[in-house]
Design brief:
The complex is a heterodimer.
Chain A: E1 4-13, E2 16-26, E3 31-35, H1 42-50, E4 57-62, E5 65-66, H2 72-77, E6 80-83, H3 95-102, H4 111-120, H5 122-126, H6 137-149, E7 155-159, H7 167-182, E8 186-190, H8 194-200, E9 203-208, E10 211-216, H9 218-223, H10 225-231
Parallel strand pairs in A: 3-8, 3-9, 6-7, 7-8
Antiparallel strand pairs in A: 1-2, 1-4, 4-5, 9-10
Helix pairs in contact in A: 3-6
Chain B: H1 7-43, H2 50-71, H3 80-109, H4 114-137, E1 150-152, H5 154-161, E2 169-170, H6 171-193, H7 195-205, H8 207-212, H9 217-243, H10 247-252, H11 254-264, H12 269-287, H13 291-297, H14 316-330
Antiparallel strand pairs in B: 1-2
Helix pairs in contact in B: 1-6, 1-9, 1-11, 1-12, 1-13, 2-3, 2-4, 2-9, 3-4, 3-9, 6-7, 6-9, 7-9, 11-12, 11-14, 12-14
The chains are: A alpha/beta, B mainly alpha.
Chain lengths: 234, 344
Amino acid sequence: MAYLEGTNLVAAYGVVPILHECSVEVEKGELAVIVGPNGAGKSTVMRVLLGMLEATAGEVKLDGQDISMLSTQERISQGLAFVPQNKNVFPSMTVEENLEMGGFLRLDDINKTIEEVYSLFPILYEKRKQLAEELSGGQRQQVAFGRAMMTQPSVMLLDEPTAGVSPIVMDEIFSNILDVRNAGMAVLMVEQNAQQALNIADKGYVLVSGRNEHTGTGSELINDPEVRKKFLGG
Amino acid sequence: MSDSIDIINAFALMTNFVILPALSYGSQLALGALAVTLVYSILRFSNFAQGDSMAFGTMIVILLTGFMIGKGWTITGIPTALLVIPIAVIGTSIYMLTMDRLVYRHYRRIKVKQNIVGITASIGVMFITGGIVRFILGASPQRFEDGERFIFSVREFKAFTGLEQGIALKTSQFLTITIAILLVAFLFYFLQKTKTGKAMRAYSDNTELALLSGIDPDKVVQITWLLVAALTTIAGALYGLDKGFAPQQYHLLLLPIFASVIVGGIGSPLGAIAGAFLVSFSEVLLTYAYKKFLIYLLPLSMHPNSLVQLIGTEYKYAISFVILVTVLLIRPTGLLKGKVIDGD
């Protein structure tokens, strides 16, 4: 039994079915990656895990507890954190205020966690008084990441963290993600850059039309000739 | 009247008839405009009920003032209205929260295009609120100012300075400007420095991310209505102390208030304040009769015969309207870059 489990999830937007009995799971200290073509339901899996979209069947378990009936906010306070793909910062607030808002639910002193975020992303300390909208794409991604870390989560869900950034920044973001994993968090990430993501992943899911098509370790999937041919461009 | 150029008396005249009235009217508009800005930023619709809500708040102030005077519970020199404002704010808050519960919450929940649906709903609330006020208080104008009317009067000023032109500072003007400054300072402190204020800005900035950060949307909405109720009641009471209360007058205040918000830049609190003073000074400056002013400043041969009034006071609402249309045509984002109103 893994730390976070989504089992046989079924979900739809209105009458359009998106997920058909799709299952994902991730262990603490593990990086799992969901890849697949556009419209496969990758982001929907995340929304269902977070309770932003209601599943019509299936269940979500965190540390053995069924959290399917909890609201998004309750799941956040249970240890889930999410970095959306777009609009993942508060643009007209400063970097520091963004981090403070990340720790909104916490009643203890959040300054120590803010320090930790600054030591992970030193550039954010320099820019702490600047508005998030004034930052570059990569820096904004770091703010988004830092905001999510403010709840001291045990699971980090990332929706295409490298969308729209340069290859150099992508490497930087991936190395940040590995740092987070090595610190003992469970990381589940949806990625368009399938090849690079599977390279660093402990576990990978290939989703097609809302179904698990292939599952395996990162290297298994990369070396699977069928996955290579269909999803990784040969 | 002297026939030489007399700048000091001209200035005194302008202060008495233009600067002080425009400053206090601008302060009243600014508070109303801030209420509209808050509703727009957090609840995402343009609140057409703002003018009538101000009438509602003022109605409670008037009723309580009458009650207090009847009981003899007054303090010499201070308008009784000032004492009852805190209770009136509570009353208006309850009314606004009830309206939110009965009307606006439904449309938030079903996630429709919030601005256009919110506008339509708020027009309904506007008519209901205006109706309640007229039902309880009647439609005729009334004054509820008691206590000392002037901080200093024209006569006292003349005796003190020896000037021909006097300046009077009405208690209501003094209160308006002072209270507006204090209230705006509090509001900005609240939004910039407190955790709840920051949560409101976060919710306004990126609602989905605010929810993901654990910010409770219902609480944000409730606190917004409390702030809006305070701004609305105080703006209405100060306007009434200054110019008297009439439901129709308050209803029409919507136009200069919306003009202020849009001129300043929708969603920008600083813009709303700047816009309010732009509108108030335009209104007063354009409807003021400059005859006496020019007589002080011009040599005898150039003295005007007419009133030298650019626009009659009956057209003062047209000024807001022209400002509104001009800004929307030339710079729809307003002076301090705000958002552009659309259907979403």
